[in-house]
Amino acid sequence: MTYSRFEELPVWQEAIRLADGVYDMTEGRDWRGSRSLRDQLERAALSVSNNIAEGFERGTTNELLAFLYIARGSAGEVRSMLCFIERRGAFAHLKSEISDLKSIAESCSRQLRAWADHLQNTDIKGQRHLTEKTRQHYHTKQEAAAFQEELKAQLPPGHPLRKGRS
After folding, report:
1. Least C-beta-crowded within 10 Å: which of 26, 58, 84, 135?
2. Count of domains in the chain?
3. Cα 125 to chain centroid, rounded
4. Is the pTM of this model over 0.90?
């Protein structure tokens, strides 16, 4: 699926959910942490979605990849701080919220990693580099691969060229 806006990306939506949850927790009456811990946690949580958005808007695959890794690092930073506060007695009353937020941060990390792996294996250099010629070349390659799969599907089961199909 092709996305035209970063707001449509499932990983960006999950990252916003992470930031919302962190802000809900740190702005609540039950927050007993220092201002600096609160600030660092909020900044790291918001950094995940911001870096996804910035990378998406940059226009090259290499820039997008760089920002996805930064976003993934921020998700790890959020998880690390959540692990820290989970160990502190002053936050025992937030155990459920902390656990939920850690799960969301892990989900963001997994999605970002999968997206980055996919981008590293693509020939497309990014929107900024797409010309009509490169678009046509890419679509021709996709059509040829799809046609090959159709042909393989016509072969009898067990045929050596059908290898890799179920």
Report:
1. 135
2. 2
3. 19
4. no
What tens digit of pLDDT does each residue of 101-141 get?
Answer: 999 999 999 999 999 999 888 766 555 445 566 667 667 77
Give 8-42 pLDDT, tens digit per residue: 999 999 999 999 999 999 999 989 889 999 999 99
**Other Cβ atoms closer than 10 A to 45:** 30
* All residues at 6 or more sequence positions from 30 whose CB lies less than 8 Å from its CB, including other chains: 93, 94
Q: Do 153 and 165 contact (CB within 8 A), yes or no?
A: yes
Tell me the residue type at 122: T
Separation of alpha carbons 24 and 35, rounded Å? 15
| Residue of 63, 40, 41 lying closest to 52 (CA atoms) | 63
Asked if residue 45 lies in contact with residue 18, where contact means CB atoms within 8 angstroms, the answer is: yes
Q: Is residue 56 part of a domain?
A: yes
User: How high is the pLDDT of residue 145?
Assistant: 76
Residues 51 and 93 in one domain: yes
Tokens of 129: 């580099």
82 and 154 belong to one structural domain: no
Torsion angle of alpha carbons 60, 65, 66, 70, nearest 10°? 140
Q: Distance between CA atoms of 135 and 84, rounded to whole angstroms?
A: 48
For residue 142, the enclosing domain spans 132-162
